């Protein structure tokens, strides 16, 4: 049997801009050291709601988890840039 090339991977979905509030960095600077703040709260809630709705089958909620992951990635990139610029 001859070998064939595997099919190309599906294209990565495009997401809207993250839901991080505009004043989040100011709130983050002013928070207590031990307080946890999540800039992607909306994406987190949507992924948990999907899990609840689909009886905790994570495969059914891949889109929501990828969206949450993208939001966190963009936020961390933003924080690194601010830290390099000395603003955080």
Automatic annotation (TrEMBL):
Q: Which family does it belong to?
A: Belongs to the COX23 family.
Native species: Parasitella parasitica
| InterPro entries for the chain | CHCH, COX23, Cys_alpha_HP_mot_SF
Show the ranges annotated as biased composition (Pro residues): 1-13
Q: Where is this region: Disordered?
A: 1-24
| KW Chaperone (keyword) present | no
Query: Which residue windows are transmembrane per the record?
Result: none
**In which broad location class does this protein mainly occur, judging by the first location in its UniProt entry?**
mitochondrion
**GO BP, sorted A to Z:** mitochondrial respiratory chain complex assembly
The segment(s) forming the CHCH domain are 40-74
Subcellular locations according to the entry: Mitochondrion intermembrane space
Q: Which gene encodes it?
A: PARPA_00759.1 scaffold 1159
A Gene Ontology term for the protein's cellular component: mitochondrial intermembrane space
**Function, as annotated:** Required for the assembly of cytochrome c oxidase.
PANTHER family in alphabetical order = COILED-COIL-HELIX-COILED-COIL-HELIX DOMAIN-CONTAINING PROTEIN 7
User: Which keywords has UniProt assigned to this entry?
Assistant: Disulfide bond, Mitochondrion
This protein's name: Cytochrome c oxidase-assembly factor COX23, mitochondrial
Pfam families in the record, alphabetically? Answer: CHCH
């Amino acid at each position: 049997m001859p070998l064939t090339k595997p099919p190309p991977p599906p294209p990565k979905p495009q997401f809207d801009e993250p839901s991080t509030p505009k004043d989040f960095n100011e709130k983050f600077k002013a928070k207590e050291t031990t307080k946890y703040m999540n800039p992607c709260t909306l994406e987190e809630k949507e992924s948990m709601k999907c899990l609840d709705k689909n009886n905790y089958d994570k495969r059914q909620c891949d889109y929501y988890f990828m969206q949450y992951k993208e939001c966190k990635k963009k936020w961390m990139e933003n924080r690194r840039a601010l830290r390099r610029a000395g603003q955080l």
